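note to self: dont lose this again. the chain is below, predicted strucutre after it. 364 aa total, dont forget to put it in the shared folder this time
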Amino acid sequence: MRRFCLAVLGSVCVVVALYLFLWRKRFGDWTVRLLAYGLGIGREKAFYLYHSYFRGYKEVFFGVMILAVFVFLLWYLFRWMTRYFKEIDRGIEALLAEDAKQICLSAEMLPFERKLNAVKQELEKEKAEAARERQRKDELVMYLAHDIRTPLTSVIGYLHLLEEDPDMPAAQRAKHVQITLDKANRLEEMVNEFFEITRMNSGQMQISRERIDLYYMLVQLCDEVSPVLELHGNRVTLDLREDLVICADADKMARVLGNLLKNAAAYSYPKTEITIRAWEEDEYVVISFQNRGRTIPAGKLPLLFDKFYRLDASRVSDTGGTGLGLAIAKEIVSLHGGTIGAKSEQETVTFFLRLPGLSILKNS
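---
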């Protein structure tokens, strides 16, 4: 705006100067001397030329000068505008450039500069996230080749043993069959996890809410996970009211709670206590799983619920998996309108989830 006003003021000054020069004849003598000197003629002839052509056609000269000033001003303004478009074009090119340089525009384009830099930062963030996702998928393919091959090799090996020795003692045959069945069930569990996360990503998963006795569900889950707990020497303590009720999809919520309990059992120190608490807080029901185990670095806590992420990089068979369990749990909790998170300090790991209470569901 300042430049525009200055350009208009300068144009007005030029027009006024031309008016004084041609219309008012205040600079006539100077013009006559200029004509005499420039054309090499006498003063009288120069005065005649001035009077005949300048003073005689003053309206034409005045109009041409005003038009010239107007055209110049218009050209100058369009030049400003095209410069801004060029700046935007350079900003878009910088936006597409694969570098971390900040986009710099002129002072008048500061709002555009901020928006372009914000978009560039968001694109870089999405690009980095996509790269991490690709890396995890690549690692997943490699891990799957190992995880599937191991139980599959066992299944094939034991089946060959059963085929090659038809007279095998019944006890040994039953043992081989049980091992083969366990490995096959592990393969089925892995395949089901992939199908489930695929359904979630495509938006095909639906929930059907019903009233659930939370205490009774947790008791059942503890019984189901008891073999894993006994293997590590862990014990579970329930700290919640027996009349606490949630409204959720029973099968899917059992999957979430069972996954968190298995996770606590797998990553806890042997012969330690796992505490499950639940309480009502601000019209929500909060459920926490706390166990004694190796402290998880703060930087890794947000990644625990990402797809294909595994905390145990060594992929020990007891704790190894596809890295989808907690990601599936997060998706299920989100479908219920809740949140899930984790914290870890002083060798204590706590997973917690918040689910909408009955009052919130009734109002919605």
